[in-house]
Amino acid sequence: MNAKQYALIDLIRHGQPEGGSLYRGHRIDDPLSEKGWQQMHDAVHGQAPWEHIISSPMQRCHAFAQAMSEQLDLPISMETDFREVGFGSWEGMTREQIKTDRRQEYDDFYRDPVNCRPPGAEPLDDFIQRVNAAYQSQLQQ
Fold it and tell me: How many CA atoms lie within 13 A of 20 on its CB side?
């Protein structure tokens, strides 16, 4: 009888970055704020049934992953394709700025975020394929 191998994977989103509420994609790499660090610690509740930590290269993700790796003496690797979706020309802007300066883009995006991406933004299909391929690659290792 062949035993099936299972992988339990916890996906944890980063906490609040420094700089407040902005559209951040993969071009803006703000570190976690003090509140963000606390949010991350609260999210894992000191529980760590993990054998390995895999992180996005973004500071807001990788710094906490590195700290957990050291604290729990676990191996860590970085997966570049787990980085955030690109928001194009909206990166670094607040929701209020976009509502004021680019109202039609904002309305179009919130009406149809798949087909009405911000100028220069990564298409969602590309993002999904990128992350899925990286996820599948990690499962094979």
Answer: 5
* Residue 5 burial by Cβ neighbours in a 10 Å radius (0-12, 13-18, 19+): exposed
| Residue-level pLDDT at 11 | 85
Task: Assign 32 to helix, strand or coil.
Answer: strand
In contact, 48 and 68? CB cutoff 8 Å? yes
pLDDT tens digit sequence for 15-74: 999 998 999 998 899 999 999 999 999 998 866 778 899 999 999 999 999 999 999 899
Phi, psi dihedrals of residue 32, rounded to the nearest 5°? -65, 145
How far is it, in rounded angstroms, from Cα 55 to Cα 79? Answer: 6
Half-sphere exposure of 38 (CA within 13 A, CB side): 4
- pTM, two decimals, is 0.84
Question: Residue 17: CB partners within 8 Å, gap ≥ 6?
Answer: 24, 30, 31, 32, 33, 36, 60
Q: What is the pLDDT of residue 2?
A: 54
